[in-house]
Amino acid sequence: MKNVIIYSDGACEGNPGPGGWAAVLVYGKHAREISGGEPATTNNRMELQGALRALDVLKEPCDVEFCTDSEYLRQGITQWVKSWKIRGWRTSAKTPVKNADLWQALDQAAARHRITWHWVKAHAGHAKNERCDALAKAEITKLRRQHSPAQLAACLKDFLAQKTAPTVPTLF
Predict the structure, then answer these.
(1) Domain ranges of the chain
(2) Alpha carbons 24 and 120: distance in angstroms, whole number
(3) Which one of 9, 19, 50, 113 is the catalytic residue?
(4) Has 69 been annotated as catalytic?
(5) One of 28, 30, 123, 125 is an active-site residue; which one?
(6) N or C: which end of the chain has fewer CB within 10 A?
(7) Is 63 annotated in the active site?
(8) In the annotation, is 139 catalytic?
(9) 2-163: what fold?
């Protein structure tokens, strides 16, 4: 299996608000940067989206060293997911898991690979982590240029309405 190192990050202005995600994938001497954003989201959703999109880039099963500055992401995928699946995507308090759609997709994407998850301290000078942070923030800037404040406010209103709507978790 190929050995790949992935760095990912997410960012959000307002939390919720416009957000961006990014990842840097390194294979040997080659590096690939990916990024994107959403006009209304949360920081945690962007952290998950960065990881998910990075794993989706891999065309075959790989040995992955995955570096993230998000304990939410690292602990979620290495510790919490197993229990959530057993409980039908509910927490120990029997409430629906937040961001279950992304956790389910990430769990499925991660299953194809052998992944070692590493936490790196944010804003501590780690070059690839800093690059991911810059790419994610650039996506937010791009969204602010593409959408008027009124459009962003409407997107946020829609996003908040979806978060308060009752959800039925998908089981697979």
Answers:
(1) 2-163
(2) 14
(3) 9
(4) yes
(5) 123
(6) C
(7) no
(8) no
(9) Nucleotidyltransferase; domain 5 (3.30.420)
Residue with tokens 């309405």: 161
Residue 123 annotated among the catalytic residues of the structure: yes
Query: Across all residues in the chain, what is the average pLDDT?
Result: 92
Report the alpha-carbon angle 36-7-30, nearest 5. Answer: 95
- Is 47 in the active site? yes
Which letter does DSSP use for residue 96 in this model?
B
Return the pLDDT at 30.
95
- Its pTM surpasses 0.85: yes
**Alpha-carbon Rg for the chain in angstroms:** 16
pLDDT score, position 164: 64
At 79-137, the pLDDT tens digits run 999 999 999 999 999 999 999 999 999 999 999 999 999 998 877 778 999 999 999 99
Alpha helices in 43-126 (DSSP H): 43-57, 71-75, 81-86, 100-110
> Are 136 and 50 in contact, with CB atoms under 8 Å apart?
yes
